Amino acid sequence: xxxxxxxxxxxxxxxxxxxxxxxxxxxxxxxxxxxxxxxxxxxxxxxxxxxxxxxxxxxxxxxxxxxxxxxxxxxxxxxxxxxxxxxxxxxxxxxxxxxxxxxxxxxxxxxxxxxxxxxxxxxxxxxxxxxxxxxxxxxxxxxxxxxxxxxxxxxxxxxxxxxxxxxxxxxxxxxxxxxxxxxxxxxxxxxxxxxxxxxxxxxxxxxxxxxxxxxxxxxxxxxxxxxxxxxxxxxxxxxxxxxxxxxxxxxxxxxxxxxxxxxxxxxxxxx
Length: 271
Fold this sequence. Notes:
mainly alpha; DUF7703; transmembrane; transmembrane helix; Rhopdopsin 7-helix transmembrane proteins; DUF7703 domain-containing protein
């Protein structure tokens, strides 16, 4: 067994094991709540936003379970464990970016920016999931030595890459939302401004959580980071629902006089 979680099982203190179990429980509870909210919130069970929320949440479960199986060797076949981790990690991380992308249309009207974000997400899949997946399988093979070093390096590259991607998308939200706040007429009701400010706060919080994941990895807490990341991604998905509810209430209050018509909101978000 290793003590860092990059290959096979881990040897941890009782305190660390309790922290890992705690993040695992938080992740599963949040996913259950997210799925219940999704099916009760969405009027139409279709669309990119709907499915990206669901698939990303399901990925959190697989990602968490996979690391639990690997770290504590509940399944002794490491290839099975890595496969479960990969099948969960990819939709969990890429899915979060797709969730952000799918509601970008609400505040960004420049199609070139939206297309650029989509290209960035697709590129990140090939740059930040394929190489570390190959190295991860190698690190858990019968000859792990040639792979563990590069995997440790690429793991950090992957974390920085995905964090930079989500920070970029959140930065676009902050920039565009700030522009919308500046052009709002002084006589306009407070509700639109409140929603805009809420969007700003949510995206700042997303950025801070991404930075916290990087901090745990750079602090040499890889075993904690993997389960903490699942918990963080579940919290980020939960933050979508206050945004959804405020947007929906805003449309109901402002009616057709506001740029977000109910049909426009429904076509993008399905609510």
